[in-house]
Amino acid sequence: MSKKFYITTPIYYVNARPHIGHAYTTIACDTIARRQRALGSDTWFLTGTDEHGQKIQRAAEAAGRTPQQLTDEVSAEFRALWDRMGITYDDYIRTTSDRHQRGLQDLWRRIRNNGYIYKGSYTGQYCVFDELYVDAAGPGAPCPECGRPTETVQEENYFFKLSAFAEPLLDLYTSQPDFIRPETRRNEVTAFVKSGLRDQSISRSNFSWGVPVPDDPRHVIYVWFDALANYITALGYGSGDDSKFKKFWPADVHMIGKEIVRFHCVYWPAFLMAARLPLPKSIVAHGWLLFEENKMSKSRGNIVRTETILDVLGADALRYFLLREVVFGQDGSFSFDALVQRYNSDLANGLGNLASRTLAMITRYFKGEVPYPSHTASHTAEEDLVAILAKHTISEFGELFEQYQFSRALEQAWALVAAVDKYIVENEPWALAEKQDEGSRSRLATVLYTSAEALRIVTALAHPVMPAATAKIWAQLGLGDITKFDLSTLKWGQLPLGTKLGKVEPVFPRADKSAIERMQQMEDQGRAPVTGAASTTPAENVGSRTTSPGHTEPAAVPAGASQGSASLNKPAALVSTAPDGKITIDDFAKVELRVAQIKIAERVKGADKLLRLEVDLGTETRQILAGIAEAYSPETLVGRKIVIVANLAPRKMRGLESNGMLLAASLEGGKPVLASFLEDVPVGARLK
Ligand code: ME8
User: What is the per-residue pLDDT for 581?
Assistant: First the structure.
């Protein structure tokens, strides 16, 4: 019996239209699902949309629609995008569907009947943007996750006895080290659970857009309880027909972005333990896609729409780029330049060129039939080396893929492409073809067979990553439908001799500079203020309207120092402006400015302007990168108190993570001057 394999994406909120951050997770899952199917696993791939909660209700109000209208519209948009991209999801779950609501209520009852739900009252802070209870903060305090102001909630709620699960969760993380991947995330979650778990409110009563609590419809179920349940309700859990649930649960992989690790690695297994249901086998968290060094997100207004790339370069180019360029698990930058460069070097010049030159030569010199290689005189050690490398690539690629190391797996496969290219250049088949003697003819057959066989192997391996292009190359190789190929049997030497090639056509036409301009233009047009369903919620309406699309980032001194104005720079990405250019006090409150003391300062290798600082915030030490090296030598900074923006999302520069931004006056044509105090101020003090 074939192995079963169940993989899920997060279900995406419908308050924002899809962008390439969502596509990234979905592409990674689709690639894994395709590979599993090709290896013969009985695979189930689930995606869908998260449609309840206060955030969606507010987004609908802001867009002048009912929540149902908004969710229908945006959910359909996500689905249409996945269809256009050829994402092979087996099911698409919506949390507003009847099947989900039935299953969810069943899960609630089950946990309640097991004694883990009780009624209490919650008074505290709530972040609508993250749909997160923030227990430890006072009124008006910013959300520790996103920095937006939290709202005070005073409600009678149902509580989940999360506190009962600290020990079982810690046991789980120890006994199943692969439960949370990568390891850094496991360590974070373990530390969080060790710091103590409080019971969790799992219902809301001051708005109605949600699934009613069983037997108490004045309450709706907390949106994260609701959302997480999708992974089982989609399989028919709690419905009349739970055959899929029996077959596919537990999930093999829940793939998520790193910001929702806690919900998946703490709450979800605790809910399942309370329901006495099996736990998923692993939660795999990837990093963020950054654009201009910030997390790509609608609230920052720095998203890149997938459609733009599909229109200009196609889905395969995007899939390859994301999986090859971003080290899975870490943050990775997206830029059109890098996309086009990768496309040209690896696809147009790499695989595409190998395919077209090999197939064109077979067409020309052997009438389009795969030639017979010689095992005698014309066979040299060079062919053996290509074969050995190919065998090694097959096994390495598989192992790296199993560990979600897509970029390294692809790097291996492209090392084979490069080796074969070199082999072709060194053996000059075009020169052999000019000679009429039998030895040259036989050598020519060997060289082209070897090249075609290596091409077949790379094509088979790359198929889950680039389904459309590899299907074409496969057909051009005369091998028919690639989806019928059993990847588990892949080995060197299977290319049937005498195979008649299909019609040979270029698969990856070279992209010129205009491709970048076109994509940028399309994005600039697309990023104009959005109307309708994608309008921002009040909580989200920050920084999404920019005069210069794609340049919403603060002009303060993160990396590049002086940007022009002589004012103390404000992080523009965090504030919304009224028509007269003013911001409200609430907007200002979103920016967490704090006093920090520099503990370590040093230059960053290869970056003239950049210093790496470690600063003490009283409660923690942070690493910040600042473009002030031309104005301050590192030794003069140690011990100095400065002002930092403490709630800026981390960003990477020169491979280092910068966790915050320091404030400086940046003078036209001059050097930045650090903000500082005349009086002594304690480290950690907030500036308001
Ligand atoms: O969190 N880089 O939904 P969401 C990488 N509904 N991945 C990104 C990304 C970026 N810049 N932006 C988004 C939710 N993603 C909840 C989930 S699951 C039971 C409920 C991807 O619409 C990434 O997978 O905010 C991230 O975790 C997810 O989209 C968040 O989508």
Answer: 57
From the list 172, 165, 422, the residue with the least C-alpha distance to 279 is 172
How many CB atoms within 10 Å of residue 105?
19
| Nearest ligand 1 atom to alpha carbon 49 | 6
Which residues lie below 8 Å from residue 88, measured CB to CB, with a gap of 6+?
A: 30, 33, 34, 37, 45
The DSSP-derived string for 299-365 is: GGT----HHHHHHHT-HHHHHHHHHHHSPTTS-EEE-HHHHHHHIIIIIIIIIIHHHHHHHHHHHHH
Residue 553 C-beta-side C-alpha neighbours within 13 Å: 23
- pTM listed for this prediction: 0.78
Whole-number Å distance between alpha carbons of 601 and 623: 10
Phi, psi of 544 (to 5 degrees): -85, -15
Q: Which of 128, 256, 263, 267 has the most ligand 1 atoms within 8 A of CB, as the residue to mutate?
A: 256
Strand 641-645 and strand 593-604: the pairing is antiparallel
Give me the residues of the chain with pLDDT under 50, please: 528-579
Instruction: Please give the full DSSP string across 128-175, using - where no structure is assigned.
Output: TTTTEEETT--TTPBPTTT-PBPEEEEEEEEEE-GGGGHHHHHHHHHH
d(CA 103, CA 275): 13
The DSSP code for 267 is I
Structure token digits, residue 323? 């999986």
Q: Using CA atoms in the order 314, 318, 319, 322, what is the torsion angle rounded to 10 degrees?
A: 180
Backbone phi and psi for residue 424, each to the nearest 5 degrees, phi listed first: -65, -45
Confirm or reject: Cβ of 213 under 6 Å from ligand 1: no
CB 617 within 8 A of CB 652: no
- Beta-carbon contacts of 31 under 8 Å, excluding residues fewer than 6 positions away, are 319, 323, 406, 464, 465
> Omega before 269 cis (within 30°)?
no
User: Using CA atoms, how far apart are residues 295 and 303, in angstroms rounded to an integer?
Assistant: 9
Please, which residues bridge with residue 48 across strands? Answer: 93
Ligand 1 pocket, residue 21 CB under 6 Å: yes
Does ligand 1 lie within 6 Å of residue 24's CB atom? yes
d(C-alpha 626, C-alpha 622), whole Å: 12
Residue 322 Cβ inside 6 Å of ligand 1? The answer reads: no
Tell me the C-alpha distance between 327 and 678, whole Å. 45
pLDDT tens by residue, 481-513? 999 999 999 999 999 999 999 999 999 999 988
Ligand 1 atom with least separation from CA of 228: 19
How do residues 543-555 score in pLDDT, each as one tens digit? 222 222 222 222 2
- Going by alpha carbons, the residue nearest to atom 12 of ligand 1 is 21
**AA letter at 189:** V
β-bridge mates for residue 158, sequence order:
119
β-bridge partners, 332: 289
d(CA 342, CA 289): 16
Is the shortest distance between the CB of 231 and ligand 1 below 6 Å? no
Residue 536, Cα to own-chain centre: how many angstroms? 22
Strand-pair category, 180-181 with 283-286: parallel
Asked if 78 contacts 39 with a C-beta cutoff of 8 angstroms, the reply is no
> Which residue matches tokens 């802001």?
62
Confirm or reject: Cβ of 254 under 6 Å from ligand 1.
no
Q: Which of 464, 457, 441 is nearest to 493 (CA)?
A: 457
